[in-house]
Structure formats: structure tokens, C-alpha cells
Amino acid sequence: MTRFTPEELQAARDRVVPDVVADGLRVLFCGINPGLMTAATGHHFARPGNRFWPVLHRSGFTPRLLKPSEQGELPSYGLGITNVVARPTARADELTPEEYREGGRLLALKVARLRPRWLAVVGVTAYRAAFGEPKAQVGEQRRTIGDTRVWVLPNPSGLNAHWTAETMAQEFARLRAVAETS
């Protein structure tokens, strides 16, 4: 893994991290927003302590553990990645309520265009803020975007101590089981 100086990470605040998407995906995973390591590398969930890639594999979504630099393989598994908010930050709490709401609006347009079977938002707090659903919980949501169903997953950040890698993988696996049959 490349080591970045603090200055290089700060310079990444201006970078755009491209989505990994295709039409008609089985599941489009949606992070909160790119962290500075993700922005610096151009690879989603790139911070070493982030559990997204290990959990994705443990839950059965991928046949092997992918590195962030292998994110381009996701569409071959019917998977993709985007974010609620495109602006990179060091911490998600740097985002404003307006950014979340606008991000939710733009995400809904993206989902309507790409038509994945499932939108999986990784982070219940981000989902609540983006879609004005203050009581939403992890799991399947009543909301749909066109024909796309919505599932909220726990945030895979290493800072999320409420979920272990194992319990997170179990929740991801619940979505995988439903997504394989729908």
C-alpha cells in the first residue's frame, strides 16, 4: 500500500472518485462519501482499517478477497460502488445536512438511470440523512427507487465499533441471499 504524506492526503480533497457501475447490477453499494485515502488512490474503501472488502468476501458476494485496486472486477459479479456525497473528507461528520439531502436526490436519479435490483447504503446514519428517514434501521427498507429495492447495511469503517467484521458479514450475507433470489 502506498503511504501518503498528510499534505498529499489533504490535496486529495479536490479529487473526484469515479463510480464503479454498470446498468442492471444486482447490488449497487453506496458509501457515505470518499475518505481522503480513497480520493488519493482513486479506489473505494481504500483506508486500511475499512472492513468493506473483507466483509464483502466473507459474506459471499465475491469468491475471493479483492483489494481496493481491484474494484473494477465488481461489475463482473453484478456489483458496483457509488457514494451518497461525492466530496472527499477526512471524516463523514464534515458533511452538511444539505450535502446529504442533495446527495440523496442525486443518488435517486443515478439509481433510476442504472436500475440495479438493490441499492445497499452502507451506513444507517447516511441513509437517514440522505432520504429523510430518521427512524430507519439496518435491513430492508420500505422505500424503493423505481423498481430498485433498498437495503441499509452497517458502516464498514473501522471506527464503527458497534459491529464486528463477523456480525457485519452476517448482515451483508442476509442481503446477498435476498439479492440472489430476487
From TrEMBL:
The coiled-coil regions, if any, are none
EC number assigned by the record: 3.2.2.28
User: What keywords are annotated for this sequence in UniProt?
Assistant: Activator, Chromatin regulator, DNA damage, DNA repair, Glycosidase, Hydrolase, Isopeptide bond, Transcription, Transcription regulation, Ubl conjugation
All copies of the Uracil-DNA glycosylase-like domain together span 18-179
Q: Give the top-rank taxon of the lineage listed in the UniProt record for this protein.
A: Bacteria
The protein's matches in Gene3D superfamilies, at most eight in alphabetical order, are given as: Uracil-DNA glycosylase-like domain (3.40.470.10)
A Gene Ontology biological process term: epigenetic regulation of gene expression
**GO terms for MF:** DNA binding; pyrimidine-specific mismatch base pair DNA N-glycosylase activity; uracil DNA N-glycosylase activity
Signal peptide residues are none
InterPro entries, A to Z: MUG/TDG, Uracil-DNA_glycosylase-like, Uracil-DNA_glycosylase-like_sf
Q: Which PANTHER family match?
A: G/T AND G/U MISMATCH-SPECIFIC DNA GLYCOSYLASE, G_T MISMATCH-SPECIFIC THYMINE DNA GLYCOSYLASE
Q: Any idea what this protein is called? A: G/U mismatch-specific DNA glycosylase
Give the source species. Answer: Streptomyces mexicanus
